[in-house]
Amino acid sequence: MRNPAAVNAIKEMKPGDTVIIYHTGDEKAVVGLAKVVSEARPDPNDERSWVADFEYVQQAKKPVTLREVKDSHEFDDWALVRMGRLSTMSAPEKFWDWLQKQGAF
């Protein structure tokens, strides 16, 4: 990723952090969880990018769509809602609780 905001989010990741897997295809949705298993490091193939390694944890019981997130209006100031093309970002602390209430995990 080359977007400075996405690169900064990757740089902040630490081993053991839980990450939410979000698909940006036809139906934008939260679809699973993974764990960070390495320190973030410069991408050896692209000097403007950083990478980290992840381990898959689980699939969501019920995908939660971007439309559901937007319709809740609880996250209107979050980058996911404001900047839909940003692929990597931090999630608000209350988002995890909200996802569980939606039946995702």
Characterization of the model:
This protein is α+β, with helices and mostly antiparallel strands and 105 residues long. The chain has one domain: ph1033 like domains (ph1033 like fold). The chain is 28% helix and 29% strand. It has four helices and five strands. The strands form two sheets. Strands 1-2-5 form a three-stranded antiparallel sheet. Strands 3-4 form a two-stranded antiparallel sheet. The protein is globular, with a radius of gyration of 14 Å. The mean pLDDT is 93.
Give a brief description.
The chain is α+β, with helices and mostly antiparallel strands and about 100 residues long.
Largest sheet: 3 strands, antiparallel
Spatial strand sequence of the major β-sheet: 1-2-5
Arithmetic mean pLDDT: 93
Q: How many E-type strands?
A: 5
SSE inventory with pairings:
Blueprint: H1 4-12, E1 18-23, E2 29-36, E3 41-42, E4 50-51, E5 54-65, H2 66-72, H3 79-82, H4 93-101
Antiparallel strand pairs: 1-2, 2-5, 3-4
Q: Can you tag this structure with a few keywords?
A:
alpha+beta; 105 residues; globular; ph1033 like fold; two-stranded antiparallel sheet; three-stranded antiparallel sheet; 4 helices
